[in-house]
Amino acid sequence: MKILITGGAGYIGSHTCVELLNKNNELIIVDNLSNSKYEAIKRIKQISGKEVKFYHTDILNEIEMDIIFQENNIEAVIHFAGSKAVGESCQIPLEYYKNNVTGSIKLFQMMQKHNVKKLVFSSSATVYGLNDNVPFKEEFPLSATNPYGRTKLMIEEILRDLYSSDNFWQISLLRYFNPVGAHPSGLLGEDPQGIPNNLMPFISQVAVGKLEKLRIFGNDYPTKDGTGVRDYIHVVDLAKGHLKALEKLREGHGCQPYNLGSGEGNSVLEVIQAFEEASNKKIPYEIVERRAGDIATSFADPSKANSKLEWKTKKTLLEMCADSWNWQRKNPKRY
Ligand code: NAD
Ligand code: UDP
């Protein structure tokens, strides 16, 4: 299949490209490199031993996107491109609505123009909002608590409307839980700019000595040990979910949401313990105030993806930590 990947130089996109190339798909990657480096494209080629077509372009650029659709006989699109930092989205909401919502609308219009109607969209468990009724199921009511989450929810709604207007569209809304880990080669991984917001890259940077200690945001949640519980998923397992979703689009299934998570919840303290075991490093930490907007517990009911996509996570928390550590150790100065 000839597939357009938006945001293919990013964390999840780059891992998905490797898995797609391993299955002999032909890839066209579009990325403006606003949150990634060209080095990731080189490493995708290095790991897979295959060529990819790369366009250093913004999905908001209609002229260039039109040319890309004209030049390539694209069958399906996997749409990763977007901005993803919750805190930043509260500071600069208009930028987030422009990049995520307007960018997506322009992409979907371009797809429509060129009669490309198969789409896999990167949604997020954040669309379950403040729900504390775990595990989260696809049919739960949706809501958002910050501009980033609202962009995901809006794009999901736009896609449901698009499908209602034209049933030739085939759309998967993949609701990721907490992607962590890295490619086992240590060549690809999460490459955050500045101080990381997310737990795993923060712990990795403490382990490698870049940061002094982890601050645990609250230990008074109604969870097993008082710290926040999340459903961590290895990025390679997540990447494989995209291949399954693409296969399903070919069979035809309409517009469907799928939870991509393991179905298990781990606390912050459990992640620290697993990381210490994987890295043989001590992770110093202190308990601080809860982080505004955090929920106590989030984990998936992945049974729909398990049965309909025939997809299931395989990698353990220990493997996630070992691969995150391997990536951090081999790339202390990022890409
Ligand atoms: P990432 O920032 O590493 O990758 C996104 C890529 O898109 C980057 O390479 C960036 O340069 C590119 N990009 C951004 N805006 C663009 C534009 N206008 N035109 C072209 N390229 C653009 O993020 P990621 O972690 O790989 O996430 C991929 C997708 O998955 C995002 O849509 C994100 O919201 C979603 N998601 C991520 C997580 C997570 O925890 N990482 C969880 C749920 C959902
Ligand atoms: N967390 C923490 N310290 C950090 C970053 C995260 O204690 O420096 C906690 C956070 O409160 C949550 C869990 O780790 O309970 C996962 O946070 P992350 O930001 O990685 O994911 P999200 O909250 O978006 O699911």
Residue share in helix: 40-55%
Helix and strand element order: EHEHEHEHHEHEEHEEEHEEHEHH
Question: What CATH first level of the domain at 2-180 and 233-261 would be assigned?
Answer: Alpha Beta
Distance between the termini: 29 Å
What portion of the residues fall into strands of 2 or more residues?
A: 15-25%
| Multimeric state | single chain
**Strand segment count:** 13
Uncertain ranges: none
Q: Tally the helices.
A: 11
Strands in their spatial order, largest beta sheet: 3-2-1-4-5-6-11
CATH superfamily of the domain at 2-180 and 233-261: NAD(P)-binding Rossmann-like Domain
Q: Could you give a short account of the major beta sheet? A: 7 strands, parallel
> Mean pLDDT score, rounded?
97
- Rg, nearest Å: 19 Å
Named CATH architecture of the domain at 2-180 and 233-261? 3-Layer(aba) Sandwich
Bound molecules: nicotinamide-adenine-dinucleotide, uridine-5'-diphosphate
Structure description:
The chain has 335 residues and is an alpha/beta fold. It has a domain at 2-180 and 233-261: NAD(P)-binding Rossmann-like Domain (Rossmann fold, 3-Layer(aba) Sandwich). The chain has eleven helices and 13 strands. The protein has helices spanning 11-22, 38-48, 62-71, 86-91, 93-113, 147-165, 199-207, 235-251, 268-279, 303-308, 317-330, and strands spanning 2-6, 26-31, 53-56, 76-79, 118-124, 170-176, 178-180, 214-217, 229-230, 232-234, 255-260, 266-267, 285-288. α1 (11-22) packs across α8. The mean pLDDT is 97. The site of uridine-5'-diphosphate has 14 residues, from α7 and β8.
